[in-house]
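Lab notes, practical 5.
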Amino acid sequence: MGLTVAEAFILLSFILLLLFTWWQVDTEKRSLLLADNLGEISDSDKASIIAGLSDGTFAMARALRAAGLGEQDQAAIEDTERYSRFMREEDLKRLMSGAVELEPGTRLKLSEVVEVTPETRLRATLDDLLLPNSAVTQASDRLAQAAAAEEGLVGMLERELGDKIRAAGGEIKADGTIILPQNILFNAGEDRIRDPELLRQFCGPWVQTLQSSGLDISDLKIEGHASSEGQPNQTSEEAYIYNLGLSQRRAQNALQVCLGGLKNGDLLSWARGRLSSTGYSSARLVARDDGSENREASRRVEFSMALNREQLLEDIRGDLKRESATVGPMQP
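Output from the prediction step:
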């Protein structure tokens, strides 16, 4: 039904109020039917009975009985006042107006949903929440430091290459990925680098900046991407395979030119241990705002980097283990 536990609990509380009302009016009705001598009934009681018959109170009681509510609900009715005191009058009225329409099966499910957890379990949960949180704080600090370091690295790339990349028609994304459209590096349908010197002037500073950052960079990737358009008269499957080969060759050729521009031995060795190339064909298309394919933007080469997160995760695991050893096992 989409109710929270609190809302379901309030709804059950209000149903108990309805039960209480039914019990009152039903008792009054049975007293009327069993009365042999109307003279023994006071005028005010008679007026109450007549009012109940005319305003629908007794009809509501019969409806509740037909819905499956019986005298065995008396114990729950006695708790109604204790629960309802937490409710505002307007909330109670709103719930009352809707609960009379609930099916019996729905009421049964609600009672299962809001079954209160034993107090001991609630206390144990609270104890867990109140444990010293130094490990959590330390993990949060580590993540914040890693994010700040990555942000600083992107800033270095922007300062070193931003103007050059944009002047050539490319862009640097917020995560540091550099995107060069097809027309910067290739002629349409070709995999040969059109201007190798331009790529070397860009790729050398890219690798140098990443290596000099001092961060643990695990991967450098050169990715070829294509549109969904293939050769004339090709099916979509044939176009995908054609573009897969084209994007892979373009990425590999870009990697070879990039490595060829690295003259420093240490820098070349560092790059070889991290650089890879792959072609994605049309698997990662660029879409326009209306969702349609932007073919020109989809034809591109991306240069991305990835930081080594294994050590960060290992440090966080160590923090949690030390915290657990310090706190010790929870007592039942």
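Observations recorded by the TA: Confidence is low (pLDDT under 50) at residues 1-12. The first helix runs from residue 5 to 34.
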